[in-house]
Amino acid sequence: MSRGNAIALDASFSGVGRNDGWLFAVLAVYLGTVLFYAVKARRAGDGPRWWKVFALAVGGLVGILLADLVGYWEFDMDGDVRSAVLLTAGLLLLAWLDRSVLLLVMAAAFVLCAVVLAQGQLALLLSSLVVLAGAFAALLSRPKAAAEGD
Questions:
Q1: Beta carbons within 8 Å of 70's beta carbon, 6+ residues apart
Q2: Rounded distance, CA 10 to CA 136, Å?
Q3: For the segment 55-65, what is each residue's pLDDT rounded down to a tens digit?
Q4: CA 21 → CA 14, 25, 137, distances in Å?
Q5: pLDDT tens, residue by residue, 71-130
C-alpha cells in the first residue's frame, strides 16, 4: 500500500478508534473461512446450497460489523482491542465447530497476548506469533496418512 493510501485509510477510520484496517482483515478472514468450509463440504459431496453459503457470509459480515460498533459505542473499546476480541470470538467459535482443543488453547493464548499482556506493536507481534505457532502445531499434529491424502 502506498503511503498516500495508508494516510487516507488512517484518516477515514480515525474517528472510530481504528487506524490500521484490521476490520477489513477480520472481514476478509471470515469470508475466506466460510468459502473454505463451503468448498470442503462440496468436495465431500454434502455441500450446502449456494444461497445458504451466501446468507451465512452476509449474516456473518453484518454480525461482525455490529459487534465492532457495539464495542465502540457501548464499551468504549480501543480499535485494536475490538479487533482482538472479534478475532478471539471467531477462534472460539471455530474451536467449538471443529471440536478442537488446540484451537481453544490458541484462542486463549491469543487474547492473553493481544489484550492482557501487551499493548501496541508488541501485542501485534506476540499474538501473531501465537497464531503462527498454533498453525505449525496443527500441521505437525496431523496423522501422516491424513497429510499424504490431502
A1: none
A2: 33
A3: 888 888 888 88
A4: 10, 7, 28
A5: 778 777 777 677 777 777 877 887 787 788 888 888 888 888 877 776 777 777 887 888
